[in-house]
Amino acid sequence: MSQDIVRDFERVSPELVKQAADFQAAILADVAGRRGTMHGRIQALRPRMKVAGPALTVEVRPGDNLMIHAAMAMAQPGDVLVIDGKGDQTSALMGTIMMTACRQLGIAGVIVDGAVRDSLEIDEMDFPVFSVGTNPNGPTKNIGGRIGHPISCGGVSVQAGDFVLADADGIVVVEKEKLASLIPAAHKKVEDEAKRIAQIKEGQTAASWLVPSLRAAGVLKDGETL
Known about the structure:
Elements lengths: L13 H7 L4 H7 L11 E2 L6 E9 L6 H9 L5 E15 L1 H10 L3 E8 L2 H7 L3 E3 L1 E2 L11 E2 L3 E3 L2 E3 L4 E5 L2 E5 L4 H23 L8 H7 L10
Parallel strand pairs: 2-3, 3-4, 4-5, 4-6
Antiparallel strand pairs: 1-5, 2-7, 2-10, 8-9, 10-11
Protein name: Putative 4-hydroxy-4-methyl-2-oxoglutarate aldolase
Cofactor: a divalent metal cation; Mg(2+)
Keywords: Magnesium, Metal-binding
């Protein structure tokens, strides 16, 4: 097997994927230290789409999808294809035929720093796809790339097997070694936010931290208030 293809790598466990998949990307991003989120240029093809699972990383040359086909042939059920397409929008890297095959193979979804096409048909399939945009132009299938290696996608480093979660807000990547430790913090974050929202609905709209923060920033003097 070519050294450009890493076939064997540790994936985040299905049990952890199931636990973490219930959270919003925003919750995981917050408890992960407000880091690990891809650039907002990569968005859900439709806002209702959501996907979670271990990353199968793919690096391609702009406009060429040869290695995506290879990755699909290697993928395990539940994998999320995470593709470094270099942000190129001049041609689509995937469309209906490939997405249909992905679904048939049990691939959970696709995240691509590049363009896709056949968006209406993918919408009807309700298959989770996150991309920079769309373009009707098709790709070439001529140029080698890499599978299973570390990539940069949407400005974030992604290792094969890392946990990725994508929803209407965007995409968060969590190192597979760290995910388990974040689950309790994510549950607490959800509970704390629910309590705060309940307080706001009861009329407690003022944030307790606001005035001290304004004083610390020099906006208000000691003793001053809003």
